[in-house]
Each structure stands twice: as C-alpha cells, then as structure tokens.
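Onboarding guide, step 5: your first structure request.
Type a short instruction followed by the sequence, for example:

Predict the 3D structure of this protein.
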Amino acid sequence: MSRRINLNADLGESFGIWEMGSDAELLTIVGAANIACGFHAGDPLVMRRTVRQALAAGVSLGAHPSFPDLQGFGRRPMQLPTAELEAMLIYQIGALSGLARAEGGRLTHVKPHGALNNMACQDAALASSVVAAIHSLDPALILLAPALSKLALAGEAAGLRVAAEIFADRAYGDDGNLVPRSQVGSVLHSADECVAHVRRMVDGGGIVTLGGQLIRTDFHSICVHGDGAEAVAAASAIHASLRASGVSLLPLPGVLREAADSDVSPSML
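The system replies with structure tokens like these:
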C-alpha cells in the first residue's frame, strides 16, 4: 500500500503591480493552495485569479488569513482583542470563500499565516480564538496546522478536521517548533537540502530537528513555500522524490479521507 501525502503552498501573495512567487508553476506541483486574503498580501483581483488558476489545476482551495500587516508581510507579532481577531479572520476567510463560490468552487481548508500561525502554535488561548472563528463560519472546513502544535490540538478539541503539516524548508528545534527565522540555519534554501529534510521526516515518520532528533508524529501535508528563489525547483524535486518512492500525492481532502479509512497514519504507511 502506498503512502498518501499532500503538498501545499502559500500562494496569491502578489499585491497590485507588485509580483510575488511563481504561482502558475507551483500549481502544477502541489495539491493544496493556501491563498492570501488581503491582510498580509493579495488583493481581490489576485485572490480571484489565484482561485481560478487553482481550480483549473485541480488543486484544493484554502484561505491563508493573517494579522493586518501588509508592510510586515504578516510576520510581525501583534496583540489584538479576541473579538477583533475573530472578526478579522471571519472577514478574510469569508471573502475567499465567496470568490471560490463565484468561480464554481468551494473552500476546503484554512491555514493561518506568519506570526499569527507561529503564535497560535504556542499560545493555547490564541489557538482557541483562531479555531473559534473558523468553526463559527464553517465547521466543515479543514484546519491545516503544524504538527505537534497547540493550534492543532485546539482544532481537534473543537471538532474540526485537522490536517497536520510539516515544512520542507524550515528547521525544527528540539521542542518540535520551527526555529525562528532570525536564527542561523532556520531556513533551507537549496532543492537538495529540502529534499533531504523531507525524506528524513517521511522515512522516519515524524519531525527531524536541527540537532538530528526524531520526534515521531503523524502528518498529512508538506508545505513548500512559494516565495523563495529556489521554490519551484525545490517543490519539483520533492514531488519527484516522493513519487519515485511510491508516495501518492493527493489534494488535502483526499488525504484526510484516506487517513480516516485506515488505522495507520499516512506518514507511516
């Protein structure tokens, strides 16, 4: 029996005349698109264009909401009142859901972006607020959250379907969290480095830390970031390596359906 995994990428991060990423190329490689909703990147035209491209490619659609931080690309920590944060998330997710429906598609998942995601992974109260916003809008949405995070635990506690993800181009600390971008070695840049990192985690059945420790955990999806110089090359190489080793690459809902039908984790099959 083959292993079943999803590849996802953060897309639609252009804004106005400013271009970011290689969306068209990545949509031929990944199975899930996390589309910026205008608060850290993206705008209505970019969002609609990306939705159209993703649907044409047969890629599942996800909202990628963030703190309101265009200047900082959503990577600056913020402290917002709970009611304000939840309303902002519903606003962003709802906007992308509406565009998806207008194009004949539907939103399948939500993946928080940047500092919001990082903070919710370690702050249970913030994680609960993120999950509450998603659940109040559509409890059928999948939460795409980092493996071993408090965000993933909050989603499960609220009854959301949770897809656990690992990162192809980011190093992990011994606590299972991402190494901060400010630290040397936190980001992997070359395609070869990313492939080796992914292979270690897929073959080992868990997160492999910067120090070489294996933390066994289930995961359903691998994030290949789309905003680096090596993004397309790395995503292509990861795709080819996984396929060559017998891994079936599916859209995100398909991976969760397969996992529900099996008593074995998709990362361990």
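Each response can be followed by summary notes, for example: The first helix runs from residue 23 to 26.
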